[in-house]
Amino acid sequence: MQELLQLFSYDFFQKAFLSAILASISCGIVGTYIVSRRIVFISGGITHASFGGIGLAFFLGFSPVLGAVIFAVVAALGIQFFTHKGNLREDSSIAIWWSFGMALGIIFTFITPGYTPNLMSFLFGNILTVSTAEIWMMLSLDLLVVLFFGLFYRQILYIAFDEEFARAAQLPVTLYNYLLIVIIALTVVFNIRVVGIILILSLLTLPQATANLFTRDFKSMILLSTFFAFVGTMSGLLISYFADIPSGAAIIFTMIVIFGILRLIRCF
Amino acid sequence: MDLIVELKKADLGYDKNPVLEEVNLQVFKNDFIGVIGPNGGGKTTLLKGIIGLLKPLKGTITYHNHSTTNRRPFGYLPQVRHIDKKFPITVFDVVRSGAMMSGDLFQSKKQEKERAEKLLAEMGISEIRNRAIGDLSGGQMQRAFLCRALISNPQLLILDEPDTFVDNKFEGELYEKLKLLNKEMAIILVSHDLGTISTYVKTIACVNRQVHYHRSNKITNSQLEAYRCPIQIITHGVVPHTVLKSHP
Q1: What ipTM score was computed for the predicted complex, to two decimals?
Q2: In the structure, how many helices (H) and strands (E) does chain B have?
Q3: Which CATH superfamily is domain A2-267 in?
Q4: Of A7, A88, A133, A229, which has the highest C-beta tally within 10 A?
Q5: Residue A62 touches partner B, C-beta closer than 8 Å
Q6: What is the pTM of this model?
């Protein structure tokens, strides 16, 4: 216990604690939308496409986060656009953006001279090395997400539930779809440092799956999955610290264990 | 008679391929139109055209009586098989979502909630208002979607196969309910059940690539030719009875 309290006096741990809270909020909200609407695979495509931007940023020497944002947003809009206008199957469209981003990322990091020190932390995340600037970015993202979902909660819910009915009611469905896909892209990129590109999708789906065991209401699912995301991230963080294993993997592993235990309990 | 919607020589379809050609149809206040026709004949396409989900490829669709506001005067009950049964949403929220048809999601929430409660009570599903939509039986789900269609006080109620996944008891109740509602609004009903449809509806539209519409509720031979197969012909005597047509 003494050791645990002492942890909170460390600067790096305070930042990790803050990012756990901030990531849980954006991932709890946006993840609930993703899971409810069954667009987990699209989100996976966006996530992996962002790696192309990170590679390009390493190569040209600008901020990897900026590169990731640009690629993620372009991929998000691209998937949406090609599916509706390009007469391409949605899953094919996703796969193309997914692999295009990964391929570009690998090529750029390979031809970048010297060693790219942050590469691993983008791929696998490291919540213990999150910087102050990154905390501010996550905070801004949270504000954006909370504001958008707070103001347009009913529109978002109704479009997600029955898009055709919303179109019949003349809601600007296409505009909402594009805005939400951009918000997904931003959520993915700004939370990459917590668990990494490979595992970020779990942060957007596992807490929701756990919450779904207890509720079938959109709003309750947002609140509960934010809670489970926080519990999972914090427990994983502590396990990673004391057992000295990579934090991203520890967080996701903890979340799966929590889901498994609660799922079993719900059986009885 | 008040005209609500008018289709003039309208071609309806997807990606420039018309499913229906040269549709002429007028829907008046207090109409009760039964839409029949073979699968793939364009019944749902016709409904989507009327609701405005499909813009006519040729011809026109004109809405009357709502030019002062942006309001769509419809209540719409789509085929329930398109609904995601696992979606995390309660019955009450589904019913309230119908309010967007009147275009005022930001206005009086209190009024909207009261109206939702009233409709749920009328349909006898008040006690399941907080359940997830996917947990309902077929009949309960259709009732919930009927509440959603009615919450915006529509001039025209459009129902796409409300009698699927429901038991006979509910089917009877539903048609009696529609008969009552018809005093306040026009109804367009798509159904496979020719027998039931012809006892309740006032007029019948037969849809197969084209729309044959006569302002009568007798299903005639010429309408049935659209089916191109032997079929029971429904006539109306003192006791409703059916006549089996011979195979061509």
Answers
A1: 0.88
A2: 7, 11
A3: ABC transporter involved in vitamin B12 uptake, BtuC (1.10.3470.10)
A4: A229
A5: no
A6: 0.89
